[in-house]
């Protein structure tokens, strides 16, 4: 593990050494990687904010590499990984687009408890009225229809499936308008 | 010291026994006779059984150590001609009522008669380190054992610090037990290697076998479970809490015979594959004594609902996956089923529980004492809605996704809380917002004055917060704080966390177990050595400044039994400062410290009754002792060590 600059005989061999790395990239070895760092100097409080951030950043990268740290048993880590791969991050932000609007918005689905709350928020955000939902006829009384793209890539009508199922399958929202909206539950 | 201490207590007791034959009433609290005892949780067992197998009889001969008793000077006080001496049968009957291993160890040191009577009346033996003693010695010492608890690998094997083939194989023990304890009823193993061959051997050779508990063991597959289910006719307990077993499908559950109905405890919560729900339902409905049922994630909520309806007598339930979308009708049925369970004191499992589904468990929560929510990333609001339904809660495990707000809800709703464990939902996510901070732990301590056990994973902490916590809850017995970034200081003052742990050891006189973290200098260990007089277990990582740190601990902590250290600047001087101490401890672990092979050799030379083992890592310096594991033993050096584990001798 090379660190620092060797000035034997007054010659800076390291600086003139041919390597494939970027200039100066060989000097950061000392910071991260606590694993083999047995000789610890007397710890002093970090006075320079920027320095301590960088130190933390280096540690961050190396923390994932430290064997057995943090001390969590394997079966617990495995159940966490299975959970994370299903995409349950804190906050479920999805894009919302509206036909004719100049730019998209993003909302956090986790903030809403059910469909009425979500629709009220969308109506307020985009200044429209969604109409009354019924299973048979979809959204009646409006030329705007809220739809969403699910995991399979299909465009579905918002409101058909139970809220939890909607939360886990919704990838993005689109508020359709006008002629496109017809045929999507607007009348039989 | 133990010898003399016990003698003085028991001389007094003997005098009283002269007056009353009911001496057993004077011993520390004991429960009912072992043959009908309920399983004792692992962490409540003391390891003093091992002590009675070692000193103070240095010459334990092959006849079992009786000869050493003849030389004991204290025998003068008990004359064999004493007319008030109890016949052996009476003495054995009285001593048989003792459960506590500490009491039994003390009793065995009183005199030869008591030693003998205690040996013959002992039904359960606890061996905290399987290499501290051999099965032959155990069998000679205690001829009538019915229940064995064995622990194997060092605890850091849980975190992948111990090579896979390290050892702790149970098979050699089973071979001896088959001939010496053919009536063995219970076997509880922790961190041992168990093969399918061993499980089959167990199932076929012990006709009275009733209870098998495997915690953190590895080396077997569902095939081994099938052998147990097939052959153990009187099985009452099958408790498998695993990582590292081969899952070849759920057919093992079908191996219980159709007329088999004695099961009281069934836990397969960590197996990954599907079991047949019909088979499970039939098994549960015919086992009318079933009290503990913990299923795995493959069991749907529909199946769970049916299981609860057929087994409302359950006292402990581990639910399976809790994320299934339910229709209102299904939800009502599930809620009704939970309502039938009037005796539930433990609820766990609940993988990925949604808020909606969680409300179905409310009717079963009124007597709940232990709630384990650490398999679902609940938000603060969801926890706050659930807790008011659990007024009797004493133990709670959660993920840090509940945040400080969730912990405030704990403080507000759980006045009887004694234990809280907060695990990280995503340990490698530095930027996790809403994770827990020092405020959370303070909020819990304010609302829960009876708190005595805490395990807390966090990303930031302050000295002041910890001082507040122990001021609010001075009765801590277990204080385990893990600040996840190694060497991190107090985030408000940038000072080391020395004062935090100083306040813990100064205030909590009953402290038995301590885990430290954060930026720590030798001062932390000076405090520990000076104040932590009841501490038995200490875990240290990325801490300390010099050998002095460890020296303070070795010199000051008189009751220390287990010490595990990783990535600290402690070298040979530190290791050797504990020379006189290690024989009174179960074990010492030191990895990634500054110990060398020479230091280990000196230790091995000076203390021949210790095994000093070094695990070498590939490509490391020959002089360095990368991982050192030291433990006392009467069985001599291991004969089954793999090539990567060297037993250091003085040569």
What attributes characterize this protein structure?
heterodimer, A: alpha+beta, 5-stranded mixed beta sheet, two-stranded antiparallel ribbon, elongated, B: 651 residues, alpha/beta, 23 helices, disordered N terminus, ubl conjugation pathway (chain B)
* Major beta sheet, strand line-up of chain A: 2-1-7-5-6
Evaluate the radius of gyration of chain B.
26 Å
Shape of chain A: elongated
Number of helices of chain B: 23
- Mean pLDDT across residues of chain B: 87
GO cellular component, one term (chain A): nucleus
Domain PB1 (chain A): 91-178
Subunit structure (chain A): Homodimers and heterodimers.
Organism (chain A): Linum tenue
Please explain how this structure is put together:
The complex is a heterodimer of chains A (188) and B (651). Chain A has 188 residues and is an alpha+beta fold. In chain A, 27% of the residues lie in helices and 16% in strands. In chain A, the strands form 2 sheets. In chain A, strands 2-1-7-5-6 form a 5-stranded mixed beta sheet, with no helix packed on it. Chain A has a two-stranded antiparallel ribbon with strand order 3-4. In chain A, a hairpin with a 3-residue loop joins strand 3 and strand 4. The longest helix of chain A is centred in the N-terminal third of the chain and has 15 residues, at 49-63. Chain A is elongated and about 75 Å long. Chain A starts with 12 loop residues before the first helix and ends in an 11-residue tail after the last strand. Mean pLDDT of chain A is 69; it is low at 1-9, 26-61 and 84-89. Chain B is of the alpha/beta class. Chain B has a domain at 2-122. Chain B has 23 helices and 21 strands. Chain B has a 21-stranded mixed beta sheet. In chain B, helix 15 runs parallel beside helix 16, helix 16 packs parallel to helix 17 (438-447) and helix 18 runs parallel beside helix 19 (498-507). Chain B is globular. The interface between A and B is large, with 42 and 55 residues. Chain A: Belongs to the Aux/IAA family. Chain A: One of its GO terms (cellular component) is nucleus. Chain A: InterPro entries: AUX/IAA_dom (IPR033389), AUX_IAA (IPR003311), PB1-like (IPR053793). Chain A: Keywords: Auxin signaling pathway, Nucleus, Repressor, Transcription, Transcription regulation. Chain A: This is Auxin-responsive protein.
């Amino acid at each position: 593990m090379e660190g620092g600059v060797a000035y034997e005989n007054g010659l800076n061999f390291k600086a003139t050494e041919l390597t494939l790395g970027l200039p100066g990239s060989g000097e950061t070895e000392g910071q991260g990687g606590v694993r083999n760092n047995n000789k610890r100097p007397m710890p002093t409080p970090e006075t320079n904010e920027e320095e301590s951030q960088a130190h933390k950043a280096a540690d961050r990268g190396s923390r994932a590499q430290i064997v057995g740290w943090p001390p969590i048993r394997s079966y617990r880590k495995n159940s966490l990984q299975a959970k994370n791969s299903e995409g349950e991050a804190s906050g479920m932000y999805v894009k919302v687009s509206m036909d004719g609007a100049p730019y998209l918005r993003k909302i956090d689905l986790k903030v809403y408890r059910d469909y009425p709350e979500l629709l009220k928020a969308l109506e307020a955000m985009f200044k429209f009225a969604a109409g009354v939902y019924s299973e048979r006829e979809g959204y009646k009384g409006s030329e705007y229809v809220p739809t969403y793209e699910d995991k399979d890539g299909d465009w579905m009508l918002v409101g058909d499936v139970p809220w939890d199922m909607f939360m886990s399958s919704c990838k993005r929202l689109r508020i359709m308008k006008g002629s496109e909206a017809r045929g999507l539950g607007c009348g039989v | 010291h133990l010898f003399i201490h016990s003698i003085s207590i028991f001389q007094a007791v003997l005098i009283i026994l002269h007056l009353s034959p009911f001496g057993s009433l004077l011993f520390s609290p004991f429960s009912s006779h072992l043959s009908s005892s309920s399983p004792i949780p692992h962490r409540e067992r003391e390891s003093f059984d091992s002590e009675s197998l070692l000193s103070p009889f240095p010459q334990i001969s092959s006849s079992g150590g009786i000869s050493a008793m003849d030389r004991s000077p204290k025998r003068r006080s008990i004359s064999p001609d004493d007319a008030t001496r109890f016949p052996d049968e009476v003495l054995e009957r009285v001593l048989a009522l003792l459960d506590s291993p500490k009491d039994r160890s003390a009793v065995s040191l009183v005199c030869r008669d008591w030693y003998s009577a205690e040996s013959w009346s002992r039904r359960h033996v606890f061996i905290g380190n399987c290499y501290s003693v051999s099965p032959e010695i155990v069998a000679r010492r205690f001829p009538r054992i019915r229940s064995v608890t064995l622990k194997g690998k060092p605890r850091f094997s849980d975190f992948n610090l111990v090579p896979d083939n390290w050892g702790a194989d149970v098979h050699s023990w089973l071979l001896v037990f088959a001939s010496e304890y053919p009536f063995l009823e219970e076997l509880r193993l922790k961190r041992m290697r168990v093969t399918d061959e061993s499980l089959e051997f167990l199932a076929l050779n012990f006709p009275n076998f009733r209870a098998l508990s495997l915690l953190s063991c590895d080396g077997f597959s569902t095939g081994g479970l099938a052998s147990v289910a097939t052959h153990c006719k009187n099985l009452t307990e099958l408790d498998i809490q695993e990582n590292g077993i081969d899952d070849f499908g759920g057919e093992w559950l079908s191996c219980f015979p159709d007329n088999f109905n004695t099961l009281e405890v069934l836990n397969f919560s960590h197996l990954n594959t599907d079991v047949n729900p019909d088979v499970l339902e039939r098994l549960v409905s015919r086992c009318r004594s079933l009290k503990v049922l913990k299923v795995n994630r493959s069991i749907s909520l529909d199946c769970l609902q049916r299981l609860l309806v057929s087994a409302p007598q359950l006292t402990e339930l581990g639910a399976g996956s809790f994320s299934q979308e339910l229709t209102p009708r299904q939800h009502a049925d599930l809620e009704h089923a939970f309502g039938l369970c009037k005796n539930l004191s433990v609820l766990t499992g609940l993988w990925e529980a949604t808020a909606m589904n969680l409300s179905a468990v409310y009717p079963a929560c009124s007597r709940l004492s232990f709630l384990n929510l650490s398999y679902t990333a609940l938000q603060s609001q969801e926890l706050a809605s659930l807790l008011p339904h659990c007024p009797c809660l004493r133990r709670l495990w959660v993920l840090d996704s509940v945040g400080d707000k969730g912990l405030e809800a704990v403080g507000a709703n759980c006045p009887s809380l004694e234990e809280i464990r907060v695990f990280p939902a995503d340990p490698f996510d530095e930027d996790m917002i809403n994770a827990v901070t020092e405020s959370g732990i303070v909020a819990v301590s304010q609302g829960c004055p009876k708190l005595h056990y805490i395990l807390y994973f966090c990303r930031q902490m302050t000295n002041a917060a910890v001082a507040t916590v122990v001021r609010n809850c001075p009765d801590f017995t277990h204080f385990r704080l893990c600040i996840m970034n190694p060497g991190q200081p107090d985030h408000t003052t940038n000072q080391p966390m020395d004062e935090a742990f100083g306040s813990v050891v100064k205030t909590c006189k009953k402290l038995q177990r301590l885990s430290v973290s954060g930026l720590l200098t030798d001062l932390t260990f000076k405090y520990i050595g000076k104040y932590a007089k009841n501490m038995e277990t200490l875990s240290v990582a990325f801490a300390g400044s010099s050998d002095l740190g460890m020296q303070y601990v070795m010199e000051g902590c008189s009751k220390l039994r287990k010490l595990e250290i990783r990535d600290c600047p402690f070298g040979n001087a530190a290791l050797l400062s504990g020379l006189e101490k290690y024989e009174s401890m179960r074990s010492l672990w030191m990895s990634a410290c500054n110990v060398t092979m020479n230091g280990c050799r000196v230790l091995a030379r000076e203390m021949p009754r210790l095994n000093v083992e070094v695990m070498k890592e590939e490509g490391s310096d020959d002089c360095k002792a990368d991982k050192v594991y030291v433990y006392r033993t009467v069985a001599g050096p291991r004969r089954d060590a793999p090539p990567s584990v060297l037993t250091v001798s003085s040569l």
